Amino acid sequence: MRVIAGQARGLRLAAPRGRQVRPTSDRVRESLFNILGARVPGADVLDLFAGSGSVGVEALSRGARAAVFVELDPHAVAAIRRNLAHTGQAAAGEVRLQHSLVAVRQLGRQGRRFSVIFMDPPYGRNWPRLTLKVIAGSRILAPGGVAVVEHGRREVPPQQVEDLQLTRQNNYGDTTLSFYEAGDRGGEDL
Q1: What's the structural domain count of the chain?
Q2: 115 — phi, psi (to 5°)?
């Protein structure tokens, strides 16, 4: 696993040991960032169920302003911190050792907003729907932002969760990326 592009291009990333973490493959990450394109430079990024932090580190390498990494496994958190230090991105990364849903609620109460939210929850469970519901309720997705869910290809993601609409899907082998954007929020100025 390596950083694909940007200032840290080619640097290898550490992955925590064990089967609890399933890092996003280089191929899927490259496709993700090709799709996100101009949304990344200057963005505030939230990497939920972060694992090794490869998505958030990639975003920072490509010019994101800041990234918050949320992970419950202490070994994965240590790997994220190593990866941030190794790529020279430690100052732009905030690492939280906590459950993703708890973090989303706290970030919402703090008034934090993110242009790009990425989540890679455990496959085969209802985590995407539940996490999207908490994201929508917390209003942490900035206007014009995108929330991306990595999930198993056989999982059927919801078309809509509150005001978050499924706008795009891309398949990569057994992995699917589903993209959500906020619909009309009744003229609210967030």
Answers
A1: 1
A2: -80, -30
Nearest-Å Rg of the Cα atoms of the chain is 15
Taking the model in full, what pTM does it have?
Answer: 0.90
With a cut of 50, list the residues of the chain below it in pLDDT. 185-190
Q: How many CA atoms lie within 13 A of 164 on its CB side?
A: 28
Amino acid at 48: L
- Whichever domain contains 145, its CATH number is 3.40.50.150
Tell whether 8 is covered by a domain. Answer: no
* pLDDT for the residue 189: 36
Is residue 157 assigned to a domain?
Answer: yes
Residue positions counted in the chain: 190
As a whole number of angstroms, the distance between CA 46 and CA 140 comes to: 9
Full residue range of the structural domain in which residue 98 is found:
26-182
Burial readout 65-93 (b: 16 or more C-beta within 10 A, e: otherwise) = ebbbbbbbbeebbebbbbbbebbebeebb
Where do we find the tokens 């430690």? 90
The confidence score (pLDDT) of residue 187 equals 40
Residue 148 lies in a domain: yes
Predicted pLDDT at 18: 61
Specify if 121 maps to a domain: yes
Residues 74, 75, 79, 81, Cα dihedral to 10° = 30
Name residue 167's amino acid.
T
Which residue do the tokens 């008034």 mark? 111
pLDDT at residue 26, rounded to an integer: 77
